[in-house]
Amino acid sequence: MTKQTLIAVIAAVSAADGYRRAGIDLLAGKNELELTEAQLAQFEADPRIVVTRKPATDEGVMGNAKKTTTDDTGANSKKAEKVTFDVAAPDEIDLSKFEPEGLAHYAAALHQLHKSGALELNAQGKPNVDDLAVEVDGKTVKPSASDRDAVWDGYKQLIGA
User: Fold this and answer.
1) pLDDT band at 80 (very low <50, low <70, confident <90, very high)
2) 51 vs 70: CA distance, rounded Å
3) Residue 118 and residue 129: Cα distance in Å, rounded?
4) CA–CA separation, 31 vs 9, rounded Å?
5) Residue 127: is the preceding peptide bond cis (ω within 30°)?
6) What residues does 33 pair with on adjacent strands?
7) Which terminus has fewer CB within 10 Å in the chain: N or C?
8) What is the DSSP-derived secondary structure letter of residue 15?
9) Local structure of 56: helix, strand or coil
10) Tell me: the pLDDT tens digits for 32-49?
């Protein structure tokens, strides 16, 4: 793999969490990233992303930008800041009382993650949309960002958090 120069940027994303551009999963709002020239060109061409280059600092060209990782495909991916949820998961929850109605299957997936200790929250303190994916009628579905927010708020209320 050839070494490429990375450019520190702040990418303001107007799309929902999980939006993907140039091989990077993004969060809605502000994302601090390191991009190659090719990735930067893709970000700048996207109308849902406003890119601002970060100035160089005494700490080096990358300054305080969050570090990215390279997976085995060679693509850079953003590591979301992890936030903990320090509330114990009850053994069982009564989904018949879950609000909003129609989203209980996502709450069940959320509870399963919580009970298993695998619940990770993003920098906004919410579960990632992809983590709440469930199978319905043989298809994998995941909630929209607004449905995820409603499920998260409803789940916390249901368990008394």
Assistant:
1) very low
2) 21
3) 14
4) 8
5) no
6) 9
7) N
8) S
9) coil
10) 888 888 888 999 999 899
Question: 57 is written with which tokens?
Answer: 């600092």
Tokens 């080096």 belong to residue: 60
Dihedral-angle region of residue 69 (phi above 0 means left; psi in -120 to 50 means alpha; beta otherwise): beta
CB 103 within 8 A of CB 153: no
**Tell me: the pLDDT tens digits for 121-159?**
887 788 888 888 888 888 888 888 889 999 899 888 888
- The CA distance from 21 to 49, in Å, is 9
Write out the H or E segment, with its range, that includes residue 77. Answer: strand 76-78
Residue 38, phi then psi, degrees to nearest 5: -65, -45
Q: Mutual orientation of helices 104-116 and 145-158 as an angle, nearest 10°?
A: 60
- Helix count (H) and strand count (E) of the chain? 3, 9
Residue type for position 144: S
Report which DSSP code applies to 87.
S
Residue with tokens 């005494």: 58
Residue 153 dihedral angles phi and psi, to the nearest 5°: -65, -45
**Domains of the chain, CATH where assigned:** 7-78 (3.40.5.80), 95-158 (no CATH)
